[in-house]
Amino acid sequence: MKKSRSLVLVYKSACFVLVGAGLLLCAFSTRPVRRIHHSPKGAATADIKVLGTSNLHNWSMEDKEVSCSARFTYAAGKAEPASLASFTFSFPVHSLTSGKSGMDSKAYDAMKAKDGGNITFTATASTITPGADGAFQVKSDGNLTIAGVTKPVVLLAACEVKADGMVSCKGTNTLKMSDYQIKPPTYMLGALRTGNKLTIAFSMNVMK
Q1: CB 67 within 8 A of CB 89
Q2: Which residue, 43, 100, 102, 150, is most buried by CB atoms nearer than 10 A?
Q3: Please, what are the averages of pLDDT over each run of 10 residues along the chain (208 residues)?
Q4: Residue 146 neighbours by CB under 8 Å, 6+ apart
Q5: What is the residue extent of each domain of the chain?
Q6: 33 Cβ contact partners less than 8 Å away, ≥ 6 residues apart
Q7: Can you spell out the DSSP letters for 152-175?
Q8: How is domain 39-206 classified at the architecture level of CATH?
Q9: Sign of the alpha-carbon dihedral angle for 175, 142, 38, 96
Q10: Dihedral (C-alpha) 96, 100, 102, 108: value to the nearest 10 degrees?
Q11: Contact assessment for residue 48 and residue 66, using Cβ atoms and an 8 Å cutoff
């Protein structure tokens, strides 16, 4: 009995040692636990939705983790940005989802996802219109690529500076599938026909 009890005590002690060592390693590990606390200046994350219509009901697809880059410049002592020096985003078509696999498949085919299609935007010029209480407007002229076709677009966004200095922006842009040589998909043997008009809605957070 004494020997068995001794083994139990040794086992428990070993467990405590292993747990303590694990906690010690975690405490001194250089690998960040939460990426947001270690994001570089200008790093941005975006939530992008594609909103459409059909003869039966409206539909939407979304990618909640779009990686992008937006570099604001600041005047000395100012919390609000003075200009937007660069702004880009790119994400694979396959990352857009509607929650309905059949619809997703049709949309991917229409946007030529099998050819490695990405949706990308690169700003060529941006202007900032100051507002009040940390709010401002951004207008970005640039090139949007969908299904391998690139067209000039203008993105408008309402932005504000948060208490921690992060810039939060929201905006929309309306376009036509036909402008990008996309044939509006149909479903259920043609019973559901999507409309030609699309709305791109986005929200973005930029680290200062």
Answers
A1: yes
A2: 43
A3: 44 39 34 40 83 88 88 90 93 88 83 78 96 92 93 95 92 92 82 89 90
A4: 111, 117, 119, 180, 182
A5: 1-31, 39-206
A6: none
A7: EEEEEEEEEE-TTS-EEEEEEEEE
A8: Beta Barrel (2.40)
A9: positive
A10: -10
A11: yes
